Structure prediction request, 771 residues.
Amino acid sequence: MSNNVAIRIEGLGKRYRLGQTVDLKRTFRETLMDLPRFFGHKAARALKDAARRTLSAARVQELQSAVRDHRTADPETPPGTFWALRDINLEVEHGEVVGIIGRNGAGKSTLLKILSRVTDPTTGHAEIRGRVASLLEVGTGFNPELTGRENIYLNGSIMGMKKAEIDSRFDEIVAFAEVEKFLDTPVKRYSSGMSVRLAFAVAAHLEPEILIVDEVLAVGDAAFQRKCLRKMDSVADSGRTILFVSHNMGVMRQLCPSCVWLDQGRIRDIGSSAHVVDKYIRESGSSASKAHCSFDPDPDKDFQLLSIRLLDRNGQVAANFDCDFGIQIEMRIVARRRVPQLYAYLSISKTDGTTVMVSDSYDTCPNPLENVDGGPHTMRVSIPARTLGPGDYSVYLNFSSPAGRKGTHVDTPGTVCAFHIDDVSSHRGNERYGFFSTLLHWSID
Amino acid sequence: MADSRSVPTIHIRPSRGWMALNLREMWEYRELLYFFVWRNMKVRYRQTLLGFTWAILNPVVNTVAFTVIFDRLAKLSSDGLPSPVFYMIGLSLWRYFAATLTSVSSSLVGSANLLTKIYFPRLLIPLNTCISGLAEYFIALVILVALMLWFHVVPAASVVLLPVLLLLTMATALGVGLFFAALNVRYRDVGQLVPFLTSIWMYASVIIPFSQIPERWGIWRYLYGLNPMAGIIEGCRWCLAHHVMTVEKLTKTVLSGLPARLAESQRIIVERLMDGTPQIILHETTKTPPDAPWLLIAAGLPFTIGMLVFGLYYFKRVEKMFADIV
Prediction:
């Protein structure tokens, strides 16, 4: 192996068993049902007829599907198992900082666990050169009865530090965690923030050649997260090899020059973070995103929203958007009766309920809904580029009229869509907190 | 360019059956073992009122209970020894054995959070439990020594045998415990079984002195030694107390006059001669103190060694799966 490679992974795979333990009865039954195949088609057919005659239809179905599953399944994937990781080939050189991204369940943590030797691979093999420290969880081994001081030693030792090392870095660790006053109090009395800070402080002062970090930066308050990030940065700068898993794309772009995208246990893409993260964001969506919504026609309503869709710059339905391009909202509406002074009300809020942007159709002069009748019509409104900041939003829609036949509310679809915006092109990226993503102009002379 | 030999290379492969014991790696992780033991000690009596005096209270209360029940009420033989001494020797070692066996068996399941997050040689977990129990044993030993001095039983040089017996106890507890610990990860009933097992096992080891087994059974008597703890505890009693209690020494003490309570505790029968002068006779003057129970201990060795080897083998075999099924 060339001296410059820190981690080499070849054909790595991990297969897990589903459920509690092997269901012996079921596998036995399946084997039995498959037996007629050995005796040829005639016997199989005869047995099937006999079964059909004696068993109920449902039972026959069940047995047939069990045999089908067993036969057609991938021979390497017996029923009741699944591959969490498959065919992973990767080479990481010394000093490289590699990010690993993917949806939940893609196999990221499994890969890290295998590399940390916590669990064994099913196939393939990996070679690691250098001392490894794994941060799969902060505070591993913390004992609530022990004091902060004692836990620093215990946790440090568990993570692989020698006592001498802990002694020499003790003061730095305490300063990083900001728990000087509480060193001799049992950890069970610490606030959650304090214990997280302490745990991360110990972990941050490990000095291995290879560091494996799993989504642990998502804890603590914003100030602490910034501190952790800076520390990770300095660790990266010091020439160590880092494997880093995170869901925070902004952090990923900032820390890792290159990135691996895992999808359903396989490597989907490897390359520069900018490129891979971009592709990943475009493809996946958060589970709360909903790019379209439709309603059953209700003849009772004088005016009705039939459907609404969110479109990206290419006219495609999307739930994830880029700050640099606008969001098109396209609505199909029908006006069964003329409603005077009708207007549409649109409100965009953050997921915590804060209203971010409000607009109604009077913003455009004349109000297009004022004299609408018949239909269906397609109504469009767009949110301009570089307006909303990165984050998750929901769309609320309401149609009202002060002179409506049945009162002010004509149609109230309510919260209809949810979408997500990422800032991929600016330097600040998704760390642009606040409501706006407007790029300000800075100058100096 | 870094010298390729100075940098450790770790190979990660699917495990195939038997894994080497890898003592060198264990030695590298010796500091972690120290920290585990240190943690166990610290945590044990934190936030308790009596603190480590529990370690004193437990053996004392147990011994008193046993003496009252088995000596006073059931009138079982205590082999020539003062019965508190007899039972305490057995109980102190037994408490260590039972506690170690129980905690080793559940140690892996109890450390599930460590097993799934960090790598270190898994053997460290049962090992640290084994060692942590020694502290309580040593405290019990101190009390035992005090008790023996009270009863004027002074051990001779044979006491050097005690560490060997202790080691055998550790080996037995570790062997059985390792097997149970690995098994318990998968089948949790094992954890329920162990306390039940140890209490039955105790009755077969601590109560009955070997001398009580009928002589007429001949060589079959040594079947009693198949239970290694029986032999070990018999050996403990021998090396700590029996070896010195030659009849002569005691009769000398007896004849020089004894306080009444001592007389009673040693079951010395006061006989009155025809002419009315009291003569104190040692209860078992006719018996010589028992020989060293080498054969008995040897009878238990196959079990100890076999179990240790098997326990280690099974543990290492299943080790890689712990993180997946715990």
Observations:
- The first strand of chain A starts at residue 5 and ends at 17.
- The domain at 85-283 of chain A is CATH 3.40.50.300 (Rossmann fold).
